[in-house]
Every structure is written in structure tokens, then in C-alpha cells.
Design a protein that fits this description.
The complex is a heterodimer.
Chain A lengths: L10 H15 L3 E13 L6 E8 L6 E9 L1 H15 L8 E11 L3 E9 L1 H21 L5 H4 L8 E6 L4 H11 L8 E6 L7 H13 L7 E5 L14 H8 L5 E4 L8 H5 L2 E3 L2 H116 L2 H6 L4 E4 L2 E2 L11 E6 L2 E6 L6
Chain B lengths: L7 H17 L4 H23 L3 H9 L3
The chains are: A alpha/beta, B mainly alpha.
């Protein structure tokens, strides 16, 4: 049963009331800090629709959310202004400071209509985020890893990460091919998206493909034609910067922008402004080496020539000095021979004289020695003769001694005597016979 | 005799050493001729790396599939 008596109103009447109250209470516009989310642009109308959200800073949980809109008329001015100031696409996930009007519509509900935006706030937030990422990369000890890699002296084998349709790619190839030195370069393209939401993952995927062939490349270049839109958000991402910093091959960047370096620029081995500048850098590396080799060659040739010249003139000097030196030497030898020859007769006669004197001396000494020896022998002989004379029986008999013989033998002892036997006694002047008679004692 | 497969860096380093030997001038003329031969070879090798297209590298990179 319908209770007609109770006071009531239709939904539209109630919501119209809400709208009036809100319009009354929030008549002004308000500067609001929020994060963008779900940003989308209606292609036909040009209006921009999005969600404004606020998250708990520690838990990251949503604590407020409101629908938002930017009418085409405003959006056409705000978008380029914002993007020029921040170097950043107006997209989801940005901290923004916007001036809004609170709106309520019976059919579409609550929403915040954006009237103005302050890009400085977003820039400040981006700077803070960038600093946080840089701090993190440094804390992890990977910030300078790619910079510490040694760039090959001849960086000829180049892995290119870019979009094949980008103007910068053609510029780069053209610049390399047309280099003045005629240095050969070898390139291979690893295509990637260079703008839009999928830039980050797309470049990381390209890096991973290069990594599988890393020994084939001296250098990786990440290049991008400098379009009007500055969509550098992806190049400030932690994940991409971390991949680049730790990549085992030196990375050169030329992502074509004027504002401060992106984090990828900061961690890259070498940061250059444009693809053309990257090509110039690579060519300059080759030119530097070419100059170095040329200089070595020149030094080598001139030094070798100098040594040979020195040696040749040394030889010539020697050769020139040789005849004079030889003649000089021969002359000296000759004159010394002469001197010696002059001295020879005198020396020889002196020597002869000396020898003769020595001989004379010898002869004299010999005569004396012989005579004295003869005299000595003579004396000895006389002595012997005397001795023999003294020892002879005649001499003894003369002195009065006699010899007694028995039967023709000399008697030396009384015991030999036999009584009655005749004895012969010899004197110096003859012999006498006698007979033995025994005496009794 | 040196091997023929030096890298560019090795070749330049060897060349630099020979040149500084020659520069110092305390080099025997007998050794000089050997050094001249070696230096000439190294210079040619460096120049080849600098200026000549390495068909092998070119082919490998062209055939590298994505």
C-alpha cells in the first residue's frame, strides 16, 4: 500500500536540491592536490575525462577518489602548456595541482571540473621522484656500472634501439654511412616503442634481445627523433634505468630533448643530445684512432729514417777515417821497426861480448877446479903408497922382526910347533934352519 | 713470430711499444729491420680494422634474427 501521506520527493528533485546546496556552498574554485588516474580523451569532442585519487602515503591505499573532467576548450590550452613545462605527457599517475570547480549533476553525479593547472607542482614531484630513483640506484651500487665499462677503441658493431619509423633512425644511419673517414660500421636494429605507456617494457625487451648476442656488439645506442612531444616519463623510470645501468655493453643515448638529462641519460655510458650526435661521437672515436695510428706510423717512419741516416753517416765517417788511420799506423810501425833495426847490431855485439866473458870465466874456473882436484887425488895416492910400503913384510923384517915357518907355513902360535921338526926363520937378508927342543917348565 | 690474430687494441699497443723502442734509439740495426717488418705488419692490420669492411661481421649482423 502506498503511503501518500508521508512527505517525499523524486530522485531528481533530491539531487537537484543537492546540486543547489553544493553550488551554493562551493561557489568558488579550489586549488587541489591529487594524482591523475585513468586519463582518457574523447576523440570526437576533445574533452578529457579522468579520475582524481589520493593515496595514503605509507600504505598506498586509496583514501579519496573523484571523477574529473577538462572541457575541450580548456584542455586544448592546458595540455601543451603542461607538457612543455614538465617535459611530460599529461597522463595517468601524475601528481598534479589543479584548480577545480565542484560540480554535481543529477544524472552524472559528482565531479571536479578543471579550470587551471600548475605544472611547477608536477615538476617538483618529478624531481623528487627522480632524486629518489637516483638515490636508490646509487644505494644499490649500480648507478655508475655502465659508465665504468670500457668503450671499445673501435666501436663499429652497433646495436640500435629505436623505432624503425622514427626520423632519428634514418638520420643516424645516414650520418654513419656518410662519414668522411670512410670507416665501416655494422648496425643491427632492435626495434622498440620510443613513446607511449609501453616504452619502458619495449626498450627493456630490446635490451634483453641484445644481451643474448652481446659478444657481437661493441656498443648499444638508444636513439629517438626529437619530436615536438616530450614524452620522457619512461626514460626516468627506475626499472629501465636499472636495466641500462647494469647492461654489460656500453650504452650511448641520443633521445633528442633539450631539458635536463633523464635518468637513463645519467646512467648511460655516454649521453648525447640527438641521434646525429651519437653518430658523430662514434665517428669521432674512429677518427681519433685513425689519427693515432697515423701518428705512430709517421713517428715510426721518421725515426727509422733518422736511425738509418745516422748509421750511414757514421759508416761514412768511419770509412773516411780508415785510409789515414791505416797509413798512420803503418808509418808508426815502420818507424818503430826502424828504431829496433838500428839498435840490433849494437845489442847483438854487446850480447856476444857478454856471452864471451861468461865463457872465459867458466874456462878459468874449470882449470882451477881440475888442477885442485888432480892435486887432491895425487896426495891420496901418495898416502896409499906409503901405507902399502909400511905394511910390506920386507919393511917389517928390516925393522928386526922375523918370520918363523914350519913345513913352509908361517907359525902363528906356540901350539902349532912339533918338537923335532925343523923350523925355518926368515930374516931380511936370508933364512936359517933350526930344531925345536922341548923345555920342561 | 707473433700470431696474426691480434685485436686492434693489442696491435696498437705492440706498435706503440716498437715505435717507442725505435724512438729511444738504443736499437741495434740488426733488430731494427725485424722491427720495421713487424711495425709495417701492425700498421696494416690497424688500418684494415679501421677502414676495411669485415664481411664476416657484416654477414653475422645481417643474418641475426630478431
Amino acid at each position: 500500500m502506498v503511503n501518500d501521506k508521508l512527505p517525499s520527493c523524486s530522485l531528481s528533485e533530491l539531487l537537484a536540491q543537492v546540486r543547489l546546496v553544493l553550488a551554493d556552498s562551493f561557489a568558488d574554485s579550489y586549488w587541489v592536490r591529487a594524482e591523475t588516474s585513468d586519463v582518457r580523451v574523447n576523440a570526437s569532442s576533445g574533452h578529457c575525462y579522468l579520475e582524481f585519487v589520493e593515496k595514503n602515503s605509507s600504505t598506498n591505499q586509496l583514501i579519496a577518489k573523484a571523477r574529473g573532467s577538462i572541457w575541450a576548450k580548456t584542455f586544448r590550452m592546458l595540455k601543451p602548456y603542461f607538457e612543455m613545462e614538465t617535459g611530460q605527457l599529461f597522463t595517468s599517475g601524475l601528481k598534479v595541482l589543479v584548480r577545480v570547480q565542484v560540480e554535481f549533476h543529477e544524472l552524472y553525479g559528482f565531479s571536479l571540473n578543471v579550470l587551471d593547472i600548475d605544472p611547477a607542482y608536477t615538476v617538483g614531484d618529478m624531481v623528487k621522484k627522480r632524486q629518489e630513483i637516483i638515490r636508490q640506484l646509487k644505494a644499490e651500487g649500480i648507478f655508475t656500472l655502465n659508465k665504468e665499462l670500457l668503450l671499445a677503441p673501435l666501436p663499429q658493431r652497433i646495436a640500435i634501439i629505436t623505432s624503425p619509423t622514427a626520423a632519428g633512425y634514418e638520420d643516424f644511419l645516414h650520418q654513419l654511412r656518410e662519414n668522411r673517414g670512410g670507416f665501416p660500421f655494422y648496425t643491427h636494429l632492435f626495434p622498440a616503442l620510443m613513446q607511449g605507456d609501453r616504452t619502458e617494457e619495449s626498450i627493456i625487451a630490446a635490451l634483453e634481445r641484445i644481451d643474448q648476442h652481446r659478444e657481437l656488439f661493441d656498443v648499444v645506442v638508444i636513439i629517438r627523433g626529437g619530436g615536438a612531444t616530450s614524452d620522457l616519463h619512461s626514460f626516468d623510470s627506475y626499472l629501465l634505468a636499472s636495466h641500462c645501468a647494469q647492461f654489460p655493453v656500453p650504452i650511448l643515448t641520443g633521445i633528442g630533448h633539450e631539458r635536463d638529462d633523464t635518468i637513463v641519460d645519467l646512467v648511460a655510458h655516454t649521453r648525447l643530445k640527438t641521434p646525429t650526435a651519437v653518430a658523430e661521437f662514434l665517428i669521432a672515436c674512429m677518427e681519433r684512432e685513425a689519427v693515432r695510428v697515423d701518428e705512430l706510423q709517421q713517428t715510426f717512419v721518421s725515426d727509422t729514417r733518422r736511425i738509418l741516416t745516422t748509421q750511414k753517416s757514421l759508416l761514412q765517417t768511419l770509412a773516411a777515417r780508415l785510409p789515414a788511420a791505416a797509413l798512420n799506423r803503418i808509418g808508426r810501425e815502420r818507424s818503430s821497426l826502424h828504431v829496433m833495426a838500428g839498435k840490433l847490431p849494437l845489442q847483438a855485439s854487446q850480447l856476444l861480448l857478454q856471452r864471451r866473458n861468461e865463457l872465459d870465466l867458466c874456462r878459468q874456473r874449470m882449470r882451477v877446479a881440475i888442477e885442485s882436484r888432480l892435486a887432491k887425488e895425487m896426495r891420496a895416492l901418495e898416502l896409499h903408497a906409503q901405507f902399502v910400503c909400511l905394511a910390506s913384510p920386507d919393511y917389517i923384517l928390516k925393522r928386526g922382526y922375523t918370520l918363523t915357518l914350519q913345513g913352509g907355513y908361517i907359525v902363528k902360535s906356540k901350539a902349532e910347533l912339533l918338537p923335532g921338526n925343523p923350523l925355518t926363520t926368515r930374516f931380511t937378508d936370508g933364512e936359517v934352519e933350526s930344531t925345536i927342543h922341548l923345555k920342561n917348565d | 713470430m707473433a700470431k696474426k690474430t691480434e685485436s686492434y687494441t693489442e696491435a696498437v699497443e705492440k706498435l706503440r711499444r716498437i715505435v717507442s723502442d725505435i724512438e729511444r734509439g738504443d736499437l741495434d740495426v740488426d733488430v731494427l729491420s725485424e722491427n720495421v717488418k713487424e711495425a709495417t705488419r701492425l700498421i696494416q692490420l690497424c688500418k684494415d680494422k679501421l677502414y676495411k669492411v669485415d664481411e664476416e661481421v657484416k654477414k653475422v649482423l645481417e643474418e641475426l634474427d630478431e
